[in-house]
Amino acid sequence: xxxxxxxxxxxxxxxxxxDAKAKAMKRDGIDVCSFSAGEPDFDTPDxxxxxxxxxLQQGKTRYGPAAGEPLLRAAIAHKLQTDNHLSYKAENIxxxxxxKHSLYNLMMALIGAGxxxxxPAPFWVSYPEMVKLAGGTPVIVQTTADSQYKITPxxxxxxxxxxxxxxxxxxxxxxxxMVYTPDEVRAIxxxxxxxxxxxxxxxxxEKLLYDGAEHLSIGAVSRDVFDRTIISSGFAKAYSMTGxxxxxxxxxxxxxxxxxxxxxxxxxxxCTFAQYGAIAALEGSQDCVEQMRLSFxxxxxxxxxxxxxxxxxxxxxxxxxxxxFVNISKLGLSSLEFCDALxxxxxxxxxxxxxxxxxxxxxxxxxxxxxxxxRGLERLTSFVKSRx
Length: 388
Ligand code: PLP
Fold this sequence. Notes:
Blueprint: H1 5-8, H2 14-27, E1 33-34, H3 46-57, H4 70-84, E2 93-96, H5 98-110, E3 116-121, H6 126-133, E4 137-142, H7 153-159, E5 164-170, H8 182-194, E6 198-202, H9 223-226, E7 229-234, E8 247-250, H10 253-264, H11 272-283, H12 287-308, E9 314-315, E10 323-327, H13 335-346, E11 348-349, E12 351-352, E13 361-365, H14 370-387
Parallel strand pairs: 1-11, 3-4, 3-5, 5-6, 6-7
Antiparallel strand pairs: 2-8, 7-8, 9-10, 10-13, 12-13
Helix pairs in contact: 3-11, 4-11, 5-6, 5-10, 12-14
Bound molecules: pyridoxal-5'-phosphate (PLP).
The site of pyridoxal-5'-phosphate has 13 residues, from helix 5.
């Protein structure tokens, strides 16, 4: 069958593919230690589930406004004000089918042929593909472990051309787990304003910070940068709501209206009763978020200690999200070869760095049990030793 040309320009999500393979192996009874999932292993907190159940019973089962339930839009605006010092109203918010969909909507509303979007690498797999789907050109800026995989203001300035429309900033980062310090955010903000570009700040991991790391939302730096900022986030990672598919975008009204029009002709509203769960997530106690963060912190310490004990592997200590990004270059294998062999020989699933434009790395998610971390790292140790 002849497919549209745009299909040929994008690659399937390697992270979803490997996670699906690991899950299928588990279903077949194979004892797999999986570090592939980009999702918390906790159940959604009870009070959130109950709010959705009540909404179901109350008949919140019908079509709603394409841009989202007014109560949820208002609750998100309130959260952005209190948590992030960003002055948005409900009309500045659109509720989307996850953070992935919010970014997709954004690219469709903002980016067209000839527009360049700057993406620091290593990057989350979907950014360049979304830009291409929208007809734009991703401009990849490579970073290294020396700058903790963060783009510097000088690198950003160099990458900007008259065609640059947007910078994608992701802190805390998937896949590296790095967090831009407030000073680093301010320095990037200065370039954004001076060069008159826009920035989308993907803040989906903002609640998962360790070792005193601080999250500064770039829009809070100044009024000038606020006007050039779009916030993308969602409920998946902080509230363990990956399957609920609720995310959001915050931006100037004109842009939100454009995304709502696109959404009105594509998905319409996000599942109505799921949105009531999201309201409970924002308005209820945040203790559940802190409890999960503390578990992740404990696992991060454990996995870092075990990785450091493996000769040949190196890793910058992450201070956000739930990933460690491990340098495998000393082994002389491509990341795909490494991950394929690791899965078939040791039943350990990891994501090859090539998916994030870093073929000499692998990504391990520690959003998994301590037992899996201990057993999986024992197997990884055997695997690496067998290669030296
Ligand atoms: N942004 C980043 C950096 C992510 O890692 C993810 C999910 O893995 C998303 C956005 C999208 O999350 P969701 O669509 O599940 O809300």
